[in-house]
Amino acid sequence: MTRFGYTLMTEQSGPRELVRYAVAAEQAGFDFLVSSDHYSPWLEEQGHAPHAWTTLGAVAQATRHIPLMTYVTCPTMRYHPVVVAQQAATLQILAQGRFTLGLGSGESLNEHVIGAGWPGLEERQDRLEEAIGIIRELHTGATVSTHGHWYRVDAARIWDLPQVPVPIAVAVSGPRSVRRFAPLADEMIATDPDADLVRSWQDTRSASADAPRSRVTGQLPISWDTDRDKAIQRAHEQFRWSAGGWDVNANLPTPAAFAAATQFVRPHDVAENIPCGPDLDAITAAVRPYQDAGFTDIALVQVGDEQQDRFLAEAAEPLLAKLRAGDESGQTVRG
What we know:
alpha/beta; 335 residues; globular; 13 helices
């Protein structure tokens, strides 16, 4: 069965609001929560960027049973991997085993702020591979000293380790990254409903480690509102940044750059790619390609902070009921 999640989008909400939404999402029946980890919003109209790990610590205490995940943290520039290893271990203790560490190679928007430049994709993936190895070793409880190509570690040890090990999910975008990271990760993250990518990931994992099929997490923006015109306006104002695709999005450095790059994106362009308005069947239809591609976990992003309370109070439960009914029907047909 597919799990349906709710996104704590740090780019569009403050920390106290995010904690409140997490509690409401758990009560509404979402299966898991994911949190972005940003230093800046994509666009100034979104207007927020609280510290994700501090917020997740509060969420872990405010919620009771819902799984948590970073979607995603870059452990290579703004954070040294030894810091990520400690953060993840501590959060797993606070969450009592509910946390998954989602990792990726990052975006310039968040990582350039430390003043170290923004490397090309090959270097970013080299850094990520080395970082995963450091995090894995630290999570064994060992004292780690290493002088790698990208990172030095001097007698580092995680003193508070969780009883439940921290699963690691890695974001991939193509065959090369699948071959590289499937043997290193427990789970997969991807932005597009690409069945070939999912199949390649599962096959690579099985071939390299005789491992069971892993969870595959994707994410889908929606703009629910009882007024479709308002939903489209909100999606255009706050989510047109996504129109450029990941190759562009990973390399633009500031909200102003995203605004300039998307100045000619029109409201109806956004509405063609993001379900907008009150039609829950349209949202269910937009989710289906991810299910058909083999995604086991699909997180929804409700666009706009001002609409979160209404979405969670009015739309979340009937939407989840439709999604689960459709999932059961789809399982029957595919089976």
